[in-house]
Amino acid sequence: MTNPRFLQIHTLTSYTATLLNRDDSGLAKRLPYGGALRTRISSQCLKRHWRLAEDPHALHTIDGAEVAFRSRELVTKKVIEPLMGVIAEDVIAAIEPEFQMALYGDKGTTKKGRQTLLFSETELKWLASEASRISAVAAGDAKAAKVMAEEWRKGMKGSLAAMKAAATLPGGLTSALFGRMVTSDPEANITAPVHVAHAFTVHAEEAESDYFTAVDDLSGDEPGADTIQETELTSGLFYGYAVVDLPGLLSNLGGDVVLAGEVLHSLIYLIAEVTPGAKLGSTAPYGRAGLMLLEAGDRQPRSLAEAFRDPCKPHLPAAVSALADQLARFDTAYATGEDRRVLTLVNSPVPGADAGSLMDLALWARALPGQLA
What we know:
By secondary structure, the chain is of the alpha+beta class. It has twelve helices and twelve strands. The strands form two sheets. Strands 1, 2, 3, 6, 7, 8, 9, 10, 11 and 12 form a ten-stranded mixed β-sheet that branches. It has a two-stranded antiparallel sheet with strand order 4-5. A hairpin with a 2-residue loop joins strand 2 (30-33) and strand 3.
């Protein structure tokens, strides 16, 4: 195998009596697959929990990580509010619409007209410095400030790359991993090197409606429940799949091999250990991967979801066996020669994979960017 281009991450994780990811009606998200309805966890849900995890391997604890904020009020909170009390209110009112439109597009003057964007602390500081500069040059003249802000915005149109270039990690570490789309200016877009599939149960859904009550402690002798409600609970063994474009990650991190290695090291731990859970207080939905398979190779990635098109038994040994069989079929047909490491809680071999602990897998992943240098 030549230098690895892709790192593929496969997991099997079990959860019992949970509601991990809900749809707009409050029910568990679902996916029809292979003629059976499965319980699903969206990729957005998975990525959010990995991104925000407060954990010994949290992404924000990595040296060199840059804070980013996702909001429709980036200009309001990070550019305009710091100027309050520093410059005149009429000057602020004159320049704010221009900065909102510069970041959010022509409809950005109202919160409803803005999309939720992700920008790094450094990018926002640059934007704030531009607002301060215009205010200073205008010297308290609101009309002059408005004219200057409008000219500045027109000059910025199509070139938010200037703000992007001001940051070591444009969009912060979050964008470096999961990408960024700015419809008002494609120059500010960042391509995601981490690709995440929706997780789904390897078997048909297992769900029930949970009837529960709340009793009023101060109701005296009045019998019965004060509140009666229902919620859905599901159980399942989920197949998860993610791919890291290693050159893409390295590029987004400014070529920093050490930082890329630390990011991968943390990401492996987060994917294996962090629960994408809701209803923490009533279901304690904590689980860890019963299998994690890492593959490094230079060929196009391929999911092993096909192993579960026919629902298998809802047990880890059966799922590991089905995954191993699918992997063996791919090896025979395509001979792509990936280098593999596996963590598994069952005594079942995985073709071509050296077994190890989670620490072993994370350390192995951390070394991969160095092979590209």
